[in-house]
Amino acid sequence: MVGPDRDVTRRTDVRIPEQEAHRLDQADPGHRHLFRVPPADGGRYPEAAYLAGNSLGLQPRATRAELLADLDAWSRLGVEGHLEAERPWLPYHELLTAPAARLVGALPVETVVMNSLTVNLHLLMVSFYRPAGRRSRIVVEDAAFPSDSYAVRSQARFHGLDPDTTVVRLKPRPGEETLRTEDVTGFLAAEGDTVALVLLGGVNYLTGELMDIAAITAAGRAAGAVVGWDLAHAVGNVPLALHDWDVDFAAWCSYKYLNSGPGALAGVFVHQRHLGDPDLPRFEGWWSTEAATRFEMTPVSRPPATVEAWQVSNPPIFAMGPVRTSLELFDSVGMPALRERSVRLTGFLERLLDEVTADRPLTVVTPRDPARRGCQLSVRIGAGSAAELTKRLRHEHGVVADAREPDIVRFAPVPLYSTYHDCWRVADALAATVEQSR
Fold first, then answer.
1. Which end of the chain has the lower number of beta carbons within 10 A, N or C?
2. Rounded to whole angstroms, how far apart are CA atoms 76 and 71?
């Protein structure tokens, strides 16, 4: 829990009392005790109010011991650890499959943890972006994460197409901050016969908007397009049902809400209907062939009828360990309970921000409807630099947030470890840092 105030007499402009945040934390405590919370760089409290889990999640306390145990197996067993370690390395990736599948609403044969997010998107687009004649366009949101934009443009160039005309960037309506579902589905109904691939973010990194994955997937498939999703900001944040929603493919990272460490291994989903399809092109490698015959050392791959056919290289064990530890934590707590707490916690932060933004040059751009967002509220600042504001929040108040230049500051009250008091500290810090409008 957050330590005692260092200066309880300090005046604050936030009308919701600090004691109300403490009361809510006692009634709805979350699982902060399972994580290592950084010390505050400034302000009145010993621990940071860490609301940057949408950029990098905190370290679970169990991670260090579990990772050291895998390292110890290497020191004791050498190469024999592939078969004789307590968690043998040869099938190690299989330990992650079932919990990852449960987290994204998939079958185990549809789910694998491997590589990094953009590498996985490229491997998947080898199979699922197959432009032909008029049907060649790729649909993304205008506020797509830059890496996704780079990836789809490079895929268009790889196929000899002009990325400026091949990639369609859907924008919000004039005067609006987020993309309406009906605008996406309407575009697909009108121009879907030109679209080869729809590739959107499940939760937009900039605004925190949760897209209607089921409705957009249905519209894209009805138009004859392949529909894939970047779930970097959705996995571990909102409930997912990829198999039932009939998504063609998806990819996600695990260093944000999945708390698996910087640059941690990513995940892939491919719907069951595509598995074992001999007409789908894929890049192959050592781990693409079926495990039972891998060490026969034959020159021709025999891929299994599972998503593991998309694997290329043998998995890095010490990078998989933290992912396994985190997935076990999600299995223990459960996504439904986390989502319920997320709605309560983000709603409390919204109430606080409503107070602070009412008379300051600050605007919340995330949808107000809880069903249209995850655990992130993005604030547009009216003057100055977003990076400079987050620096002041951190060093003067111990509040860690994320800046997206030029003018967006993102706050993510992660339900696993964030507290109501963290949210109160955000509002208090903003009120003290941003001058009121005149």
1. C
2. 9
